[in-house]
Amino acid sequence: MRKNEQKREKRGKGAPVFGLLVFAFIASFAAYSASVWTQDWRTASREPAGIAPDPAVVKEAVVQVYVARAFNWRGFFGVHSWIAVKPANAPQFTVYEAIGWNLRRGGTSLAIHNRPADARWFGATPKIIADIRGRGVDGVIQRIDAAARSYPLAGTYRVWPGPNSNTFTAYVARAAPELKLDLPPTAIGKDYIPGGVFAKPPGGEGFQVSLFGMLGLLVGSEEGVEVNLLGMVYGVDPLGPALKLPVVGRLGWGR
Predict the structure, then answer these.
(1) Is residue 187 situated within a structural domain?
(2) Which domain, by its residues, includes 165?
(3) Does residue 123 lie within any of the structural domains?
């Protein structure tokens, strides 16, 4: 009898955690469905979100990494990411990103263009996940530019499991460890390693092993511990602390 009671107590303790995950999943689905699924890409907003520094005011060099929920149904599962740079005294930002329809139109997914760093991604409001400024950042910008232009998978684009926009961002970030980039678990494709199985994580310190973005393990000083199963990321950041889950993203605290 006592053993049965102990089992019931353990199940009872696990119920609130399971309930929290279910609630987070449903809330994410409802919020995203209401805000984006009803939009037409031709009329969806691409206006700035008002979170990037104004180049007319901020003269120092700036590098920022943004993520925003992908357009339409894809946004329920994942995000689109891009890197925005502004050299010292530059009058505008340059944005580096990989875009699927860019490949279909022009033969390359790589897009390097001048646009607002914080432009909404077809209605989805972006979030800054890395931001470095000031002395030495011009050198980082040069490395970002070189890495972006040498991206070896510009001729291929797949939403799942990659290579895609997040594969590109992770690739470039490895050339700029100063960013200490921790791409969210919703950045599907970030674990696709161009031309290999082993790599440094995008955050700069640690190790990563991945089989075509479908199965892998990442241990990093910025990311914590992540396991990739069929392109979906599950992990824990002990320094947050936080859980990392597909669809939902990060549950817990930032560093």
Answers:
(1) yes
(2) 42-252
(3) yes
Taking the CA atoms of residue 90, residue 45, residue 26 and residue 225 in that order, the dihedral angle to the nearest 10 degrees is: -20
Residue 24 lies in a domain: no
* Poorest-pLDDT segment among 71-85, 204-218, 219-233: 71-85
pLDDT at 33 over 70: no
d(CA 73, CA 91): 36
Contacts of 195 (CB under 8 A, 6+ apart): 152
Contacts for 182 with CB less than 8 Å, ≥ 6 apart: 129, 130, 202, 203, 220, 222, 223, 237
Query: Do 76 and 60 touch, CB atoms closer than 8 A?
Result: no
On the question of a cis peptide bond just before residue 91, with omega within 30 degrees of 0, the verdict is: no
Angstrom CA distances, 169 to 13, 110, 144, 173, 190, stand at 40, 11, 10, 6, 7
Q: Do the domain assignments include residue 5?
A: no
Give the number of domains in the chain.
1
Residue type, 35: S
Number of helices (H) and strands (E) in the chain: give both, helices first.
Answer: 5, 12
Query: What was the pLDDT predicted at 74?
Result: 80
> Got the DSSP string for 188-230?
TTTT--TT-SEE--TTSSEEEEEETTTEEEEEETTTEEEEEET
Contact 230, 161 (CB under 8 A): yes
Q: Compute CA distances 89 → 55, 65, 66, 122, 179, whole Å.
A: 8, 19, 21, 29, 20
For residue 254, the model assigns a pLDDT of 81
Whole-number percent of the chain with pLDDT over 90: 77
**Tokens 């003269």 map to which residue?**
59
Whole-angstrom CA distances from 22 to 25, 27, 36 are 5, 9, 21
